[in-house]
Write the structure tokens for this entry.
Amino acid sequence: MDPGHGGRKDPGAVSRTGLKESDINLSIALATQLELERLNISSVLTRTGNYASLLPIRALLADALNADALISIHHNSPSANPSSTPGTEVYVQSKSDRSQRLGALIYEKTFAYLSSITNINWVSRSDAGVIQVLNSKGSDAYGIIRRPATPSILLELSYLSNPSEAELMATDAYAKNISKAIAAGVQSFLMTDKTISDPANKIRRYNPGSGLGSGSCDDALTSP
């Protein structure tokens, strides 16, 4: 598991109250690791504290360990339009059926948990869901997705830039329950033949460097 961002120079998105994405990502990764241990599934984190870790090393660690999956954990920014449902996004490898299956299974679990929470003013992009993010050359735009041969996904669980969602993220219950959802998706991927009949794999075009707006995530972007 890859807790996105990290280190003094790369906190990721920051909420209005000062909550850092890098801290939330790590908390969820650590909690998910405990859940996976409970399910007798071993895991390794690309970082275990608040320090920087180079993208090429993080992206290829799963290959070096001969892992079954790589999951990069993030929280989105800038805010999107108001929505009645969570704007959870899962980026998958465009040429990997296993990545797309993994992404669909984890999306199902994380979206279901978030949707069960009441009194949240969600935001979402219109194409939220399981997404292939491709650059103008038709390659996966995100390095953490494009580089590994291991089935890899990038989770944008919810919007840290949205005050209502950021308030939720600051609670202990959020890390505890979202980690259970991620672990349940991993268990389903590794230990069952379940597939999602319609994973709603959408294609988003994005060229790193063009920008998605102030505060957009560049932690897992490309470089060859």
